């Protein structure tokens, strides 16, 4: 076993290699833009270069005259097509080709379709437009930006949570801080480019597009195109990184479908990295004001978190992380308020831990500052404020292993070697700093369906319209089926990423493993039940075992007393060749319509802070060491340790990889990532991977992930908490804490760069 | 142009990049496009044994050269290249999209003699972004494959 | 991308003839024809629509062996124009005689790009100013007279030295800093014959004509770069400071070579990257060091001299202290080199 495959501890599954690993290392895994399509034409987008105004004239003649150009779909060509809807499945309500209004920079103004990519691209470059321009509002401080309370604007953010009398407690607190923090605009930038390939066969439409929500997209695309959803199929077998960016469908999908219908042949549109910054979603910039009051003993008596978030002019996209930060510690009183600021920008959307990344960053940076104000060790400060119940509704946590995580991570990191005095640690020309922070992510699950077939020769096929975005869900689904049906994992084939399969919820919110495994588990139980009844039945090979508990292993049905029957013999007794079971899973507390909504592409999430009896979160503790050159002040992170507890770990290999990837994302958030906005024009300026920096290999040295055992039967039947988004929560605050420790500079605005430390 | 040992006569537009030629005209879609501007490394292939970015090379410039892509790595009996196996063993990817480029680059890194230490590997593999951030596992995979390739 | 004619000449004079015959005696422009070597800069800008040549002349089939050779003799390293960055960076003798040259290449771009990119192409790379790269912005360098979007826009990566009212774009290359520090000379061949250009004269300050970037005519091909070296250039290094550890352009860099007599500086060569509009020789800093004991305070005085004329804008003020500290660190580290 190597580092990538940690030995499973209690309640952890084996580090089985990914079932699709062979395809991925040979180039055979078919990402949507790889799938061969006969007679395909190429589409390239033309986009606006102003952020606000109206198109007064669109000049298409030059492009039309270009050799190889087949067609141009532009404003006014969407007759009979409904505008997109903003919501779970739709990225924005803006229908760029439905009217002439420009809502944001880089808005689609045309799609050029040509015989070759080169012709389409040159055609798009030749398109120009005249605009009646208005001065756009770029962000928070721009004239014309409109602010409103966020509560109630989104089904995911119903209210500002509060508890007790904050003002009174704060005013009398012995020690307090009142600070503002901010996070910049960020783009997911998965390495796979966004793309849509549309093919019509009669009135049937097939779309190849990387998607985290094939079922939702099928329904939404059919609605826009005014066709029956049974005629729409979304295919997305492999996804080249998602991080939320492929959750909501954008306006492009319908536009490419319309183009394919017009030219009567398949059209493939691969969006350039540059255009993706404006035509996909992103994480908008946030601001925070945090006030914390505590007694001299370090017990927090008052906590207030106010957040401001940017969104587009028409769509109220909210992240609202205060429901998590407001429940994090044992605050005596809580006040929270989230406001939306509408600006002339494309609509933001989910990006890896949408609420927690910015909000917990602010909270944890403030916690570190508070620990300094109290003269207290930051770990000890968190220990003192560890709650028995969450402070808002007084509900218990279904499980909460935070202190355990802190203990294990601190030990592995060597926290006790840290000299708490600022600037006290040095290695030659390098200042050394150590810091820590808490990670939290709500544990949810959603309804999900799966079909499992077992044949007499022990082959298993699992079908589920979920999505392999790199999390390893295909692998853990196979593992779950293999374990329950007692066959080797090599005998399990898993089909995913196709809206023709049983519906699964959007692969977001870290719900996939829990939801998919619960559905697969349920289908497997049904298969087992049939086999057991037959095996123990009068004509069965285990006749007479009565009500004894049966199980499946090594392609056999076995009894507690050690009797066993080969699968083939049980099937023979049943006189059938295969058992196929279709199961629908709905989490506890689901509404009566939950399953209906699943088929309608509107998954209902349960868990987190929504449940009646308890709140459900996964926790972790992260420690980082930074080194800052004493002359030139560049900041490097040679070492990080994270300990995480997330219920049952299905596969220690994929779990570790995800958490490690998350922590490295955290480094990017802390030190590198920011989409720069030209405030005069409300335009993004660094729309590529040369200027939008993400960590490279050389930035990452030792990353140690500790999986802390945790058993939680309350969360869902599989006992699984999601961990895909947990790892990158808190990291940036841990870095800020370490930078403070090294330099005495408290940096509150991300990313932390040389600029902040050089003077 | 020879691609993975086979000769192709493609008759392409001068503007076609080597990357698009491979993907759209030869049907070898293992090589990926992540930026099309030399900023990510997903399109890495070997030309005459050296790792290069296929997105920044016009296909016409490669007439007469030998191109190796990820599809050309496995041996005739379909057994994996040690680097491919090492990537599996060390879970050196998540989504897998950057992986063909990482693997081609890793092979180049070793043959150039830049895989002497972990720090060297990190530096000389920094032209391949992995947004899933499998970096530590990629380094481990290269160390494993390097030693196996040396032994072989 | 505009369609183009593709040519593959097999010797230098054929290449020059191809670009000279093209425009009926009229001096060709970059829109008429451009050479291509590695393509890592030009293909990028063609895809972006910034460069739109009608004809490309590929230099990779030129048969003159010297174009691909590194020859070391009589105190000169002669790099053929088509030598790849990676090869030059890895050459043991280059590293030995002049670590500065090898380091400036090693820390540039990525291994793949260094395998593709030629040394001549490298020194001729164009700025990465974001507003220059995107054709929808006004930019005096791309479209003379259209204005400069960076001046009042986002200019964190822009230059503080050598700027003009028309353009503040940084010259981003690394190798050129080593070349200018060491007084390199470039061999050029064009329709009017061959000539040599001192490296310091190759790049042009933006002034009123930021679109004119070099002293080369469109028909002139660089055939070699000659770098004089001596015993003391072993004491040289390239320090590059960037936002991430690798695969990033310099926020500030310093190319330093020191001729030391014990603790005292006999002669210093200093160039600065990431902070200026062209490869930047810091002569005032060099002068400030001559005859001095090189300690922290002498280094700081030199750094102050190097940036005395700096003109920062809104987002790149940090480049002044950063540039100074980079130079100080480079001087101290070079002083302490064991050679
Ligand atoms: C993502 C990325 C990161 C990079 N990072 C760095 C970095 O950190 N540091 C750095 O220094 N560089 C960096 N570069 C730039 C890279 O080094 C240059 O693109 C490369 O060196 C150019 O060489 P080339 O042979 O590919 O030139 P080409 O693209 O072929 O040509 C560039 C220009 O030079 C002209 N030309 C080429 N050869 C000749 C000749 N012999 N005579 C006359 N004209 C000629 C061409 O006409 C063209 O105008 C980076 C590039 C990219 C894409
Ligand atoms: S700085 Fe120079 S290159 Fe950049 S926009 Fe201004 S004129 Fe153009
Ligand atoms: S696609 Fe070639 S480097 Fe990104
Ligand atoms: S594995 Fe997803 S980008 Fe590297």
From TrEMBL, chain A:
Keywords: Molybdenum, Oxidoreductase. SUPFAM superfamilies: CO dehydrogenase molybdoprotein N-domain-like (SSF54665), Molybdenum cofactor-binding domain (SSF56003). SMART domains: Ald_Xan_dh_C. Residues 26-135 form the Aldehyde oxidase/xanthine dehydrogenase a/b hammerhead domain. The keyword Hydrolase does not apply. Signal peptide: none annotated. GO terms for molecular function: iron ion binding; oxidoreductase activity. This is Putative oxidoreductase with molybdenum-binding domain. It comes from Mesorhizobium metallidurans STM 2683. The gene is yagR.
From TrEMBL, chain B:
SUPFAM superfamilies: 2Fe-2S ferredoxin-like (SSF54292), CO dehydrogenase ISP C-domain like (SSF47741). Keywords: 2Fe-2S, Iron, Iron-sulfur, Metal-binding, Oxidoreductase. InterPro entries: 2Fe-2S-bd (IPR002888), 2Fe-2S-bd_dom_sf (IPR036884), 2Fe-2S_ferredoxin-like_sf (IPR036010), 2Fe-2S_ferredoxin-type (IPR001041), 2Fe2S_fd_BS (IPR006058), Aldehyde_Oxdr_Iron-Sulfur (IPR052914), Beta-grasp_dom_sf (IPR012675). Residues 1-73 form the 2Fe-2S ferredoxin-type domain. GO terms for molecular function: 2 iron, 2 sulfur cluster binding; metal ion binding; oxidoreductase activity, acting on the aldehyde or oxo group of donors. PROSITE patterns: 2FE2S_FER_1 (PS00197), 2FE2S_FER_2 (PS51085). Gene3D superfamilies: 3.10.20.30, [2Fe-2S]-binding domain (1.10.150.120). This is Putative oxidoreductase, 2Fe-2S subunit. It comes from Mesorhizobium metallidurans STM 2683. The lineage of its organism: Bacteria, Pseudomonadati, Pseudomonadota, Alphaproteobacteria, Hyphomicrobiales.
Automatic annotation (TrEMBL), chain C:
PANTHER family: OXIDOREDUCTASE, XANTHINE DEHYDROGENASE SUBUNIT C-RELATED. Pfam families: CO_deh_flav_C (PF03450), FAD_binding_5 (PF00941). The gene is yagS. This is Putative oxidoreductase with FAD-binding domain. Residues 1-232 form the FAD-binding PCMH-type domain. The keyword Signal does not apply. InterPro entries: CO_DH_flav_C (IPR005107), CO_DH_flav_C_dom_sf (IPR036683), Diverse_Substr_Oxidored (IPR051312), FAD-bd_PCMH (IPR016166), FAD-bd_PCMH-like_sf (IPR036318), FAD-bd_PCMH_sub1 (IPR016167), FAD-bd_PCMH_sub2 (IPR016169), Mopterin_DH_FAD-bd (IPR002346). GO terms for molecular function: FAD binding; oxidoreductase activity. SMART domains: CO_deh_flav_C (SM01092). Keywords: FAD, Flavoprotein.
């Amino acid at each position: 076993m190597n580092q990538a495959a940690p030995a499973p501890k209690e309640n952890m599954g084996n580090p089985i290699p990914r079932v699709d690993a062979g395809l991925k290392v040979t180039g055979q895994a078919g990402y949507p833009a790889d799938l061969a399509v006969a007679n395909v034409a190429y589409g390239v987008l033309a986009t606006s270069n102003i952020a606000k105004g109206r198109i007064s004239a669109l000049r298409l003649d030059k492009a039309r005259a270009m050799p190889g150009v087949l067609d141009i779909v532009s404003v006014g060509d969407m007759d009979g097509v409904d505008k997109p809807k903003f919501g779970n499945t739709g990225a924005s309500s803006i229908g760029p080709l439905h009217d002439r209004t420009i809502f944001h920079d880089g808005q689609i103004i045309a799609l050029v379709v040509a015989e070759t990519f080169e012709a389409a691209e040159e055609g798009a470059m030749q398109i120009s437009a005249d605009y009646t321009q208005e001065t756009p509002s770029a962000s928070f401080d721009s004239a014309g930006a409109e602010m409103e309370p966020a509560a109630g604007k989104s089904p995911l953010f119903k209210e500002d949570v509060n508890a007790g009398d904050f003002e009174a407690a704060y005013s009398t607190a012995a020690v307090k801080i009142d600070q503002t923090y901010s996070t910049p605009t960020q783009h997911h930038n998965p390495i796979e480019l966004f793309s849509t390939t549309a093919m019509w066969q009669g009135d049937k439409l097939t779309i190849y597009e990387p998607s985290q929500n094939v079922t939702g997209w099928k329904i939404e695309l059919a609605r826009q195109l005014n066709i029956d959803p049974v005629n729409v199929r979304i295919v997305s077998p492999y996804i080249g990184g998602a991080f939320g960016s492929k959750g909501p469908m954008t306006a492009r999908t319908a536009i490419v479908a319309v183009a394919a219908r017009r030219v009567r042949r398949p059209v493939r549109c691969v969006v350039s990295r540059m255009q993706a910054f404006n035509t996909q979603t992103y994480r908008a910039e946030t601001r925070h004001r945090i006030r914390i009051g505590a007694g001299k003993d370090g017990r927090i008596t008052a906590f207030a978190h106010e957040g401001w978030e940017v969104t587009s002019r028409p769509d109220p996209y909210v992240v609202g992380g205060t429901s998590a930060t407001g429940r994090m510690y044992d605050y005596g009183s809580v006040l929270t308020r989230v406001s939306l600021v509408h600006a002339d920008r494309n609509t933001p959307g989910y990006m890896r831990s949408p609420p927690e990344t910015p909000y917990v960053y602010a909270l944890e940076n403030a916690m570190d500052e508070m620990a300094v104000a109290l003269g207290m060790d930051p770990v000890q400060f968190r220990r003192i404020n560890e709650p028995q119940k969450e402070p808002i509704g007084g509900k218990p946590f279904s499980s909460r292993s935070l202190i355990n995580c802190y203990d294990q991570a601190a030990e592995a990191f060597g926290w006790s070697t840290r000299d708490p005095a600022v600037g006290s640690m040095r290695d030659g020309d390098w200042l050394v700093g150590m810091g820590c922070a808490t990670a939290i992510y709500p544990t949810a699950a959603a309804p999900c369906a799966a079909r499992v077939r077992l044949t007499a020769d022990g082959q298993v096929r699992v079908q589920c319209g979920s999505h392999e975005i790199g999390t390893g869900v295909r692998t853990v689904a196979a593992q779950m089926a293999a374990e329950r049906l007692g066959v080797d994992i090599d005998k399990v084939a898993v089909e995913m990423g196709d809206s023709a399969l049983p519906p699964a919820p959007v692969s977001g919110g870290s719900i996939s493993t829990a939801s998919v495994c619960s559905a697969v588990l349920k289908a497997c139980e049904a298969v087992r039940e049939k086999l057991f009844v037959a095996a123990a039945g009068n004509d069965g090979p285990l006749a007479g075992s009565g009500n004894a508990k049966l199980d499946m292993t090594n392609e056999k049905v076995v009894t507690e007393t050690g009797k066993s029957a080969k699968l083939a013999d049980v099937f023979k007794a049943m006189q059938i060749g295969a058992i196929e079971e279709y199961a629908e899973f709905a989490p506890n507390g689901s509404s009566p319509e939950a399953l209906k909504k699943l088929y309608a592409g509107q998954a209902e999430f349960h868990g987190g802070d929504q449940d009646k009896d308890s709140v459900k979160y996964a926790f972790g503790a992260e420690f980082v060491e930074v080194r800052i050159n004493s002359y030139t002040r560049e900041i490097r992170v040679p070492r990080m340790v994270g300990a995480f507890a997330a219920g049952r770990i299905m596969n220690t290999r994929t779990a570790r990889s995800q958490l490690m990837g998350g922590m490295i994302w955290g480094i990017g958030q802390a030190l590198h990532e920011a989409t720069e906005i030209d405030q005069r024009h409300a335009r993004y300026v660094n729309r590529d991977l040369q200027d939008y920096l993400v960590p490279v290999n050389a930035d990452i040295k030792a990353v140690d992930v500790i999986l802390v055992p945790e058993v939680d039967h309350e969360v869902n039947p599989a006992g699984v908490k999601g961990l895909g988004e947990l790892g990158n929560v808190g990291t940036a605050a841990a870095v800020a804490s370490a930078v403070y420790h090294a330099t005495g500079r408290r940096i509150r605005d991300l990313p932390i760069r040389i600029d902040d430390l050089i003077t | 142009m020879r691609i993975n040992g086979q000769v192709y006569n493609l008759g392409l537009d001068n503007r076609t990049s080597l990357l698009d030629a491979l993907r759209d005209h030869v049907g070898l879609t293992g090589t990926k496009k992540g930026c099309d501007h030399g900023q990510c490394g997903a399109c890495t292939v070997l030309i005459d044994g050296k790792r290069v970015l296929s997105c920044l090379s016009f296909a016409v410039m490669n007439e007469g050269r030998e191109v190796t892509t990820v599809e050309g790595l496995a041996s005739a009996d379909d057994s994996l290249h040690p680097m491919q196996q090492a990537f599996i063993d060390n879970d050196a990817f998540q989504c897998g999209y950057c992986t063909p480029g990482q693997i081609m680059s890793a092979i180049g890194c070793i043959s150039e003699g830049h895989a002497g230490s972990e720090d060297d590997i990190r530096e000389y593999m920094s032209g391949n972004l992995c947004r899933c951030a499998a970096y530590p596992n990629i380094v481990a995979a290269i160390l494993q494959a390097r030693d196996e390739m040396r032994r072989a | 991308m505009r369609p183009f004619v593709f040519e593959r000449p097999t010797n230098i004079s054929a290449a020059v003839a191809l670009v000279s015959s093209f425009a009926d005696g009229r001096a060709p422009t970059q829109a008429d024809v451009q050479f291509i070597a590695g393509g890592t800069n030009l293909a990028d800008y063609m895809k972006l629509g910034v460069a739109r040549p009608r004809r490309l002349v590929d230099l990779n089939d030129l048969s003159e062996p010297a174009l691909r050779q590194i020859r070391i003799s009589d105190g000169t390293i002669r790099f053929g124009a088509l030598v790849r960055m990676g090869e030059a960076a890895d050459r043991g003798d280059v590293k030995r005689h002049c670590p500065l040259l090898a380091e400036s290449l090693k820390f540039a771009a990525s291994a793949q790009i260094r395998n593709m990119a030629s040394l001549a192409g490298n020194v001729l790379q164009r700025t990465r100013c974001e507003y220059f790269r995107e054709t929808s912005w006004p930019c005096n360098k791309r479209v003379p007279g259209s204005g400069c979007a960076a001046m009042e826009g986002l200019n964190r990566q822009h230059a503080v030295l050598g700027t003009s009212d028309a353009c503040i774009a940084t010259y981003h290359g690394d190798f050129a800093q080593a070349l200018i520090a060491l007084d390199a000379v470039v061999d050029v061949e064009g329709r009017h014959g061959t000539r040599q250009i001192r490296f310091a004269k190759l790049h042009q300050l933006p002034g009123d004509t930021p679109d004119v970037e070099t002293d080369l005519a469109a028909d002139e091909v660089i055939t070699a770069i000659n770098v004089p070296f001596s015993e003391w250039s072993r004491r040289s290094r390239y320090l590059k400071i960037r936002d991430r550890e690798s695969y990033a352009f310099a926020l500030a860099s310093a190319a330093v070579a020191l001729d030391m007599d014990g603790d005292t500086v006999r002669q210093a060569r200093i160039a600065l990257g990431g902070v200026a509009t062209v490869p930047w020789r810091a002569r005032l800093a060099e002068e400030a060091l001559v005859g001095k004991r090189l300690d922290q305070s002498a280094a700081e005085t030199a750094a102050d001299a190097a940036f005395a004329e700096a003109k920062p804008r809104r987002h790149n003020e940090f480049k002044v202290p950063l540039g100074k500290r980079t130079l100080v660190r480079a001087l101290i580290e070079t002083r302490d080199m064991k050679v």
